């Protein structure tokens, strides 16, 4: 396409405006004209775009095609669990009886919705091996904050205010230290050992009477199951600390490992990752906090309880609750989708998720390990981390260049430069919903890109080539953000 | 590539002493290469007293946000204001124009806890 035609196609809404053009025909006004406020309050020109309905529809349709989603193509974004979201969950969530509820309706009129929440509470406790739960947190990090506030409340109730230290492995999600700090804790980073496990000796020397707890992700963000986890839990418990589990990677454990049985005291589950919510745009999410019963009194409000007397459901505020994590009952629509997903799959289906997710990641690992460096060469869980450091040293090709080139082949880039402890990291999570055909296509593309890096590195450095916008200057965008529209200068 | 006259920390900061009382501090070329394009830097205010190896600020690149640790104790007396509008100076000239801050009241004994350029060359090779 020539440049001029391409420019016209990329015009923004404001630049497509033509004076006097309208998108709707309004009937003559039957309201008497009123006197306008004084001129000083009125703007002469509010600069709204003037377009016809067809122009508007085409503009937004075109814009939507620039997007990339799991409904378009393979999306192996590590740590995010971009699995396919079955449409039936959206259909269930849009049933009028569930979508038209008002959060202030009397409990007697929403017994079905409360029952759904109650059964979801039970399912999540069962799946994770925990005792009690609050569905209130609205995202993973919100669940983390709830868990940290509960940890703090617990230690204060035991008259141990000196417990101010939270240990967090260096492979953790960035939200973990942020949540601990928001709850008023001091964060101590725990190094990983050469196998990618938490360093047991470093842990032993870090625990004392000031330890409030440990936040750990299992499997870790390296996609590895920490084989020291029982020792880790024991050491933290012996020092009087709480073991917090970030459930972001729960997908690989479903039906196989229960975090509660390993010794975890508090976890959160990212329902939007593990139990399918469309979350490519950053939400909406749900991050229920799930706990052992000695912490029940501190759960965020509300919790749904079954009243044995009359088999009715009601919202309940735990005795020493850490409070509300947001408005009303959490993200109800997200809870409905998770419920629908769990009930649709049932126990056999839930068990199969982890099996397929882990096999898919290991298939990619085994097929690509001769092409890309594996910093931890051991069986992985649901995701595998490669390093592009050899490509950087030999050909000046970074993880970013490889990721951008994948877009040309219709594949969403994997997570880059995370976890931070791996140089030039490419974190790939295929999820259980991809067929062997898709995985083979991805593997083939990664092999082709490996060859391109050697033969034609410029091709990668300037990628992507097949998209509306090619490589954007991320540094300039971050240094000089310009988010305001200004007219195209035609002179 | 790492200047001989500087001292280095394992966190990839450098110190350049000016007389026996003050020093300039920045991050090394190895650090800027690993970080990628720097877009933002946050340092403590002038007058803040800082302790060797303590976390004192943050540096943000297109890849990640990382902590800045001070390689030496002292009181911050100057910041490189050029970095506010031109953070790319850190990438383009890590050992010269990209210096980050200046401290006084330093204790030169602390320099013994740091590496010389040969030792630092060795560290980044590993």
Q: Could you write a compact summary of the structure shown?
A:
With 491 residues, chain A is of the alpha/beta class.
CATH architecture label of chain B: Beta Barrel
Shape field of chain A: globular
- Structural category of chain B is alpha+beta
How many domains make up the coordinates of chain A?
3
Beta-strand content estimate of chain B: 25-35%
Q: From N to C, what is the helix and strand string of chain B?
A: EEEHEEEEEHHEH
Number of E-state strands of chain A: 12
Structural class of chain A: alpha/beta
Instruction: Please report the distance between the alpha carbons of the first and last residues of chain B.
Output: 16 Å
Tally of helical segments of chain B: 4
Tell me what you see in this structure.
The complex is a heterodimer of chains A (491) and B (126). Chain A is an alpha/beta fold. Chain A folds into 3 domains: 1-23 and 45-66, no CATH class; 87-345, 3-Layer(aba) Sandwich (Aspartate Aminotransferase, domain 2); 354-478, Alpha-Beta Complex (Aspartate Aminotransferase, domain 1), CATH 3.90.1150. Chain A has helices at 3-9, 53-65, 87-93, 96-99, 111-128, 140-157, 175-182, 200-206, 229-238, 259-262, 271-274, 332-368, 389-395, 399-408, 436-455, 457-461, 474-479; strands at 132-134, 165-169, 186-190, 211-217, 242-246, 266-268, 289-291, 303-307, 312-316, 384-387, 415-416, 425-428. The longest helix of chain A is centred in the last third of the chain and has 37 residues, at 332-368. The mean pLDDT of chain A is 94. Chain B is of the alpha+beta class and 126 residues long. In chain B, 20% of the residues lie in helices and 34% in strands. Chain A binds chain B through residues 174, 416-418, 420, 423, 474-475, 478-479, and chain B through 34, 36-37, 39-40, 60, 62-66, 87-88.
